[in-house]
Design goal:
The chain is an alpha+beta fold. The protein is built from 16 helices and 23 strands.
Amino acid sequence: MSSRKLPLAVGQVARTATARVLLRGGADEKTGEVLSARTVAERVGWAADLVAGMAAGLLAEHWNARDVAGLAAGVDGAGRVLPSNAWMALRRLGWDVTVPEGVKVNDRIVRMAQEQAGRILRGARHRAELTGGVLQTWPADPDKRTAVEWDAVRGAVPDGRCLPGGVIKARTRQISAFVARHGRLPVDVFELEDAPRVARMLVLAAVDRQQATLERAEDNPARALLRVQLPARPDPRSYADWTWVACPLTLPPTVPPDAVLHLPTLRPHGSKVRADLAFSYPVPKSERAGHVTALGVDWGLNTLLSAGPCRLYPDGTITALGAGAMFRAAGVMARQHRLRRHGEHLHAKTDAYEHLIDGDPDHALVAKHTVVKAESGHVADRRSGLNDALAWSAARWAVDQAIAAGATVMYVEDLRSLEAKGMGRTMNTRLSQAVRGRIVGNMRHLAAEVGIAVVTVPPKNTSKHCPQCLLPLRHCKAPDRPTTPGWKWAYCPDPHCGWQGDRDHGAWRRIAARGLTHQNNTTIDRATGQMTIGRVIDELETGAVITPTALSQASGGDRSKTGPTPPRSPRPAPRRRRAPSTPSPQRPAGQRPEGHAHTDHRPPRAACRYQGVRTTIVHTISSSTPTTRPDHPRHRPRGAALGAGFHLHAHATPPRWVDPPVTTLQCDYGSLS
């Protein structure tokens, strides 16, 4: 039952997550009729339409600066603190819902309408403050702010120092469009925007047992029964038109057997009803400080993530454990960009058709416009699915690296303020299309399961300075091309330090060391629970250096060439087959006589990819590909072997964590294999 308290042990905290469940039918308890999934979706849709209509009316009535500010103040007219539930806060303020004439609904339906409207009005406060800050510091040239104007607008908006510049730019473009239409600046966001659209859904968390109940089956913890009152007609005239409908639910494996279930949110979608089922369960508590082993995570483009662990010793020294690892997703990102270009082409065709049709429903291009618009939606869904799969795979990989290294915290670059500009059209587009925010959110979700904290740190100079001496690095194309300009390979100009390695591997060392030295300055957001290191302190930054181990120092001497290279035959003997190939059922014997072997000695595509931490991140996708076809038993789809990788293009290097750390070379070659 949803009212049962969650028992917690020492060192545990309650965690609430959501699982998507599908309502596959139900039964009307009044008539005993078995209802199909389509019928249940229809009845849920009738209730959702009633709730959305009442919430939209309430929202339009109070969509103004005075009411939003009054709700955000958190106190009523008598000075009493408003309840946390939105529907209770609206009732305390006296904001009632207008029920459609001739329709009979109970008080719980009114609660759901007030809950939806209250949540939207509470969220409007941030939009109002953001718009007010932009209007207060309106620049002379909206298309290009100066540095002084950027400082002014970031100081005027809430959390402006951490707010991405793209958010401020988008709000500026919206205000500029209003100025172009009306010839003046808007007063506030409520003049700039209409009231938001209310979604068709039933927030059952706002009701009690007289409207909905949720019970878990005693004999099978993977089953639950949801009972909810639904209308039997679109416009119920009396309480007799509302009947109880029992819907059995099959819980996904992500819901623990001992989790406490909460009433879900029902979302009708076509002939289906999707239920967002919230549940609470105990997890180990993530600590803010006191960490000894940390995993540093650096961002990239083709190499999406670079990660490695570092350890803090009692004397304050920090050492790197192992050579690190990489999650490369160049192929996935290339596919994403191809879909983006295809979607842009379809959008252009759609706009052209709309311009030619000009609102004529009998135009000859209406059918083509419908087809192109539907195809554009399919491409958008494919892009969304690809981004979602990539975000979960990358997050799963990073958390698995932390588990394998025994780390209790993950330090990630805070790139929310990164602006995609000044690096060329292609690079700017690739940066703007990255899914970093979703990856970090998924990292927090997965790391909380095992009690690992995820902390964002400032990204300043993480790739620019040496991880061992903090001097500015020099960059080149490759280690064997030190004079060729590039950015991938970095080396320290100090001869006493001598560090060199992949740029991204130097960055994760800097990130982990900075997090370990600044961990006592970690702050926790009370609203979201996110942990952040807000700024870099110079005194602590001087200690955020990686100390080479004794073994690496001993082996880091001069390895220059001191003698002639041993002679090698310019034409080594080729490998030859000394016997014909073995016969097969489909081919005659001796199909391949002895002779030169294939010049490509690389193993098959799937075999040369190491899937770190037991192929957790990608094997679930690639292993589902069939390896044979009934009509051609020898057919083997490309990349279908174990470990082929996410969409055949994303793969990871092995987690080479060691304790104590063993390094044989001062030169760090990262993930080369």
